[in-house]
Amino acid sequence: MAEDDFEEFVEFTLPEPPVIGGGDAGTFDQASIDALFGGGGPAELHKVGLRAVLESEIINHERLPMLEVVCERMVRALSTSMRNLTSDSIDISLDDVTTARFGDFMDRVTLPAMIAVVRVEQWENYGIVTVDSGLIYAIVDALLGGKRGSQILIDGRDFTTIETALVARVLNLAILEFCTAIAPIAPVSMKLERIETNPRFAAIARPSNIGAVCTFRIDIDGRGGRFSMMFPQATIEPVRDKLAQRFMGETAGRENIWPEHMRQQMLSTQVELCVLLGEIGLTLEQVQALEIGQNLSFHTEPAELMDVQCGGLKLARVRAGQRRGNLAVSLATPVSRERMP
To answer: Which of 8, 15, 22, 34 has its C-alpha lying 20 to 30 A from 127's C-alpha?
Structure first.
């Protein structure tokens, strides 16, 4: 069994149950409460109890193999697109695909940086794309014709409108390539809503929420940096089962011949059609008074449209007639898949 198939577990040290005695029956003292929740005294240094469960840095999660495949496809396509955009030598690589809490991910963003908020239309949720300052200045330098291989001094100033527009152009390109790479799994369309420089203005999830993080490295003639894409668990939930597959097209044991076989059998099934020639309303007293040989008038004209039914449901309207000495009908309206009034 591969190492990736093992799940990570965390051992938590729970305090001994408090001994109730010497006080009111069924009550806990303050020391027992602090020990249970991991607060107060030495417990702050060594997290125990419920605090160890809530503030654990180790996250137990399932791997998303297909997300790694999507990122690898995105790297190949984005490399070609970036070369066409900058006319420089571009080297793009996938650093890591991992899982982190949203709060921890945002705390690791080194400022100054650009934080793009991306809306996924089909999933009705948001994602985050962070670009570090080294990559920002490398993109600006490459698009504005700077010297190749020059070292860029990061002074910590705010980004200008031109720099933001140039980086947004590259971000739109990366988002487009990601949508193309994930299309065989789940066709989606993403839109760059805004670019922030303050992490507090890009909070799309709670700090404790878990999400998938894809980190990429871009080198442009000796200069560059990293950008990361973060999708909270709520965002990728509609396609989580597909991303958890080990290879494209995995169907969990279901054979593809059965849907076609059932379709052929359903199409060859014989059904009974009924044509309603006419209707008349009678009271219960009139029905009881019916006798053998009595005639009933339905007042239906020969050219009047009639209903054809199957199982009591109206399918179409027909006209009555004769064909080769037999009573026949011809369709006057197309067969509707919806229930007709």
So the answer is: 8
